[in-house]
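Narrative progress, year one. The postdoctoral researcher (J.K.) led the effort to move from monomer predictions toward full complexes, under supervision of the PI. The following entry was the first complex the group processed end to end, covering 676 residues in total.
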Amino acid sequence: MSQFAINLIFVGGSFLLYIAIAVWAKAGSTSDFYVAGGGVHPVTNGMAIGADWMSAASFISMAGLIAAGGYANSTFLMGWTGGYVLLAMLLAPYLRKFGKFTVPEFIGDRYYSPNARLIAVVCLIVASVTYVIGQMAGAGVAFSRFLEVEATNGLMIAAVVVFIYAVLGGMKGITYTQVAQYCVLIVAYTIPAVFISLQLTGNPIPMFGMFSTHAESGLPLLEKLNQVVTDLGFREYTADVDNKLNMVLFTLSLMIGTAGLPHVIIRFFTVPKVSDARWSGGWALVFIALLYLTAPAVASMARLNLMTTIYPEGTQAQPIEYEARPAWIATWEETGLITYEDKNNDGRIQLYNDANADFAGTAADRGWAGNELSVNNDILVLANPEIANLPGWVIGLIAAGGLAAALSTAAGLLLAISSAVSHDLIKGRLNPNISDKGELLAARISMAVAIVVATWLGANPPGFAAQVVALAFGIAAASLFPALMMGIFSKRVNNIGASLGMLSGLLFTLVYIFVYKGWFFIPGTNNLPDTAEYWLLGISPLSIGAVGALVNFAVAFGVSKVTAEPPVEIQELVESVRYPRGAGGAQDH
Amino acid sequence: MSGHSYDAENYWKANLRLIFGSLIIWALVSYGFAILLRPMLAGIPVGGTDLGFWFAQQGSILVFMVLIFFYAWRMNKIDEKFGVHEE
């Protein structure tokens, strides 16, 4: 059977499973559509949060970035898990006690201001749409590979599938399909990693294999990897970074952003009790950690395997001939995500760091005229089983897993966007008398619009999937998280303070990002090149969200101090969310 | 909650203390051991690299998990002690 047929069976089979579950649990009322009736067990909910959370960025893109950046990109690992500590301690239990549907609803009530709610809707939409761009980019890569089509066509197919999928079911459908998706994605991620860890180190557990001995050379795996990459002019894999400020801010931005992202927060509204909201955070992190502890092993092993594929006789010997390249390189070339150019016309593939001036002499001595193979970071995880010569069914499995990750997160985000538009903007502001049916229609139209915008921008994304998603986290970190946290932990912050805080955090962060990444992410419209020497104090646009959050806090406290304190009933509301007693189910007004 | 205002106040203080303590550990393992203090831990070898690298790619995640479960367990106890747990 051809690989194409195997991929179709795995991807098609997993889709049938999700659709069957979605139809079985089809959303009835509007309340079902948003929060699944509040009756989901913490472990189930933790698994659904895991699927919601682990997107194309975590599954497809992250290990590729760690493979390319080594230690410096550990930020993704810490940032995307450490945020759960903040979420479980600073937000989830209190928002659950508050017991409403959406994040803007809390902000509107706590800051007794329809304008604050409106600003929260805008922040939510900007962060979520940016996030969906990353998902579309990742899903596009996965579809283009497994359908063996060009990357742009893969993106279009992804858009259609995501749309059908997200519109089909509401939250209830999504909660149980997401449990299924979690299972598919974690199995798909772990199995190839176990195989590869066994091949390279003899240790079946990747998180331990990574720190054990490379069977072939007898050296510790990471030492072997350091040796191979430095031989080719790259930085040591485990090398420390010089710019620690940027590394700290980037990690912080991802952590705060995790706690400020609406599609994750609304998951905590679906547990029966406040104490369950705390446990849910822990369970979510357990399920997420299964992937996140494996990802760094996948990254280091894939990097090593890639290098040994190109230099089978060792880095001091000649690289392979282009004609003798493995089949996976040829298939990925069709998608345009791997490109080869024979710069020195020797028919071989030279893969090395041609940007390293210290290495230029060695390269010249070896007759190399520049790096000849460019490999898109986002393909590494998907190509990983092929690089390691694993059987065809593993490749089919990973395609299904990657799509599960992208689809589940895109659906969760689209739900957050559509509920913000239909529930907070239209029902809460423009037309309070809208019927249930009208509200659902508005929700679906806003999903469609979000997908079109994200697909259009996803064709030329402002970075690799995980980097685009990191931008979304920065935006959420700078806008929503401070308003939510101050709403619970301070009785003094008032409507004007919170509104101006959110606006200044959002604008500050967006402007900084757009200056380097292009206005509204349109390629070519950036004012400054996006390289370290142009960044303010060496702070990358991916890290600026942490600074934006500080701006938000400072403005909110400053303005609140010189304006009237919140009315007594609001202070009582803040008091009441702090104590679990008396929490009912999530309710509509 | 006005009827239990004294208890409520101490309940909130106990919660804040617990959060504060947990977040110190949270920051220490990630921003501390894994990033800023990594050069100081460079002498402690772990499988071909150093302890700071291990904290950056494994250790911090493990500690985060323990922290959340510890907080949930402690906090549910505190809820009961102050009588603010759900019926």
